[in-house]
Amino acid sequence: MAEIIQEEGHGKKKGKARAKKHGTHIDMTPMVDLACLLLTFFMLTTAFSKPKVMEIVLPEKTKDIKDAPQLDKDRALNIILIEGDKVLWYNGLADPTKPPLPVLTETDFSSEGIRKVLLHRNKDLFLQIEEMNKGVTEGTLNIPRDSVASRRKKMMTADKQGPVVLIKAADKVKYKNIVDIIDEMAICNVARYALVDINSVEKKMVADYLASQASGATSSK
Amino acid sequence: MPSKPPKIDMTPMVDLFFLLLIFFILTATFRAQEAVMVDTPSSISNTVTPERHIMTIIVSKDNMVFFNVDNGIDTSEHLRGKILQAVGQQYQIKFTPEEIKKFEGLNSFALPMDKMKAWIDEKDSKTRDAMHVGIPLDSTDNQLMMWVRMSRLYNSELQVAIKGDQAADYTTIKKVIDVLQDNNVNKFNLTTNLESVDVNIDNL
């Protein structure tokens, strides 16, 4: 195995070389074994990818309803998550005093699902940010890389067109869906979104929608 | 001529071994085994978890709430021990110095205060891991609130990480978030795995 063999000078006096025929042999096998063992151990225990985090900042809880910010009806986009990885959305606000109630549209978490809806509504801002990112990666836009995030933030605050997304979760929604939808906001560069509790009107809308779906499915059979 | 057994020179291989070994020793970061396996959801976020001053609230897939707080940079401050004592005081439970010392070396836990002593004293780690039942966070007995409050009292730099399982109910996460918001924590880090997505902008 691995060992150090002290090399003798070649071509020199043969007689002398013969006398020193056996050089010092250090058996390195145990050391190599140990090194190999340790190497395997460290390779297996090392975690290269550190866990990533997604930051969210929620609005402070307001005790007084008057302190709550007013919402522009035209910009509101409501997303209601329901059981079974499904997403329902509607535009505007659901006000029971002003019928008719908005119509719920069902979609999912795929790239053709809710992302399409969000991108469509948030087109201007998305393209603006996308253009900046492209410029930075291609080197046509001369911005230091660390200020890209703050620029993106500035664009978002300046945005007056994009949707204000209200994310609501019905009962029995899994945590995965919440993370997915918040992630969707990041993907689509949505400037304004909030996690909101579902209200009774929307609960009823969801129940009605599911009931109509169920009856529609049975009648079509 | 008598054929000699071929000698293979292993020196380069051994050299390489040592090089790699040194590399792995230097880069190794040890993470203590968590009390529960959590399958975190994925996101596109690329922010790395802060290493110190972090309070982790784990929600397992069966909706048990675990709590963990680190010792901060200066371990001589014994922050974990102080927090344990402070919370214990609220529930009239006194911990011996040995128990406090042992608690500092332990990891996340999910126990009501009255079972805390038994958990710390337990010698077998397997039995200890089987003791977790979840930290109570109902309105009648909100012990998570107390842990969060005391942790933030002793370490004002603490950041909050919520590590939830994909299959955990949102209602539980919501409760945890409510507790944190009641403590004026409005910024959270949700622990996620990294994933990449494709965005189709052609048909906008």
Short description:
The complex is a heterodimer of chains A (221) and B (204). Chain A has 221 residues and is α/β, with parallel strands linked by helices. Chain A is 42% helix and 18% strand.
SSE map:
The complex is a heterodimer of chains A (221) and B (204).
Chain A: E1 3-5, H1 14-19, E2 25-27, H2 29-45, E3 52-57, E4 76-82, E5 86-91, E6 105-107, H3 114-121, H4 123-138, H5 148-158, E7 164-169, H6 175-187, E8 192-196, H7 200-220
Parallel strand pairs in A: 4-7, 7-8
Antiparallel strand pairs in A: 1-2, 4-5, 5-6
Helix pairs in contact in A: 4-5
Chain B: H1 11-27, E1 42-43, E2 47-48, E3 54-59, E4 65-69, H2 79-90, H3 97-105, H4 113-121, H5 125-129, H6 143-154, E5 159-164, H7 170-182, E6 187-194
Parallel strand pairs in B: 1-6, 3-5, 5-6
Antiparallel strand pairs in B: 3-4
- Give the number of helices of chain B: 7
Mean pLDDT of chain B: 81
Share in β-strands of chain A:
15-25%
**Cα distance, first to last residue of chain A?**
76 Å
The percentage helix of chain B is 25-40%
Shape of chain A: elongated
Helix and strand string of chain A, N-terminal first?
Answer: EHEHEEEEHHHEHEH
Q: Could you list the spans of chain B in which at least 5 consecutive residues all have pLDDT below 50?
A: none
What about the largest sheet of chain A? 5 strands, mixed
- Strands across the major sheet of chain B, in which order? 1-6-5-3-4
In spatial order, strands of the major sheet of chain A run 6-5-4-7-8
Helix content of chain A: 40-55%
